[in-house]
Design goal:
Layout (H helix, E strand, L loop, with lengths): L2 H29 L4 H8 L3 H8 L7 H10 L4 H5 L18 E3 L5 E5 L9 E8 L4 E4 L7 E8 L1 E6 L2 E5 L4 E5 L4 E6 L4 E8 L7
């Protein structure tokens, strides 16, 4: 292979990697429900740079990628991974699974869904201690959340409308308004949460 051909191959590879990086950063940021400003504050990377990375308009340095991976709580290998080479079976380790903690520190949402679907379908492993409350702002219009209880008991409050559920039961509710999940009783809660982010189901 000539030097010119080799340079062209490297350039093409860099473009492909940069494009995948932008998509991965955007999916992880949305999985955490972070704005560009919030990710910039947590990572120390300028908002304008993050925006350019997501739009595939710049090739970030390794230091920038490392800061973003730290802020998004994933390994740098995961951020740099290319979807073109993904195997049919994909394994995510516990270390690589993003986790969201409630304000009271008693609720834990592990992002177990596929990051490629985060813009329209999200699912989580939900665990909470007694007394825990997970309060959430309204998602996009028409969004629906499904909470299937595996252990413990919860009460879901959607704009003042409340309903309880125990193991074996599922609550489905519009989450395009403020909503909260509260642990009821003295037992810890374990549940699966799935959120449909598009309005098609409501039409």
């Amino acid at each position: 292979m000539s030097g010119l051909d080799r340079r062209g191959e490297l350039d093409a590879g860099a473009v492909a990697l940069s494009g995948q990086l932008g998509k991965t950063v955007q999916r992880l940021r949305k999985a955490y429900n972070l704005s560009l400003s919030e990710l910039a504050e947590q990572s120390g990377v300028a908002k304008s740079i993050i925006s350019q990375i997501e739009r595939n308009e710049t090739n970030p340095t390794l230091a920038t990628i490392w800061r973003l991976s730290q802020a998004l709580d994933v390994s740098i290998e995961r951020v740099l991974g290319s979807s073109d080479d993904e195997p049919f079976i994909e394994k995510t380790t516990r270390v690589d699974t993003p986790v969201i903690i409630s304000d009271d520190g008693k609720c834990r949402l592990a992002v177990v869904g596929w990051l490629k679907t985060v813009e329209w379908l999200q699912w989580y492993d939900f665990r909470a201690e007694p007394g825990g409350v997970l309060e959430s702002d309204a998602h996009q219009r028409g969004s629906v959340e499904c909470l299937s209880i595996l252990a413990g008991m919860v009460e879901v409050d959607v704009a003042g409308v409340r309903e309880r559920a125990e193991p074996g039961e599922t609550l489905r509710y519009r989450c395009d308004r403020q909503h909260a999940i509260r642990v009821v009783g003295d037992e810890p809660v374990h549940a699966t949460m799935v959120c449909f982010m598009k309005a098609a189901l409501m039409e």
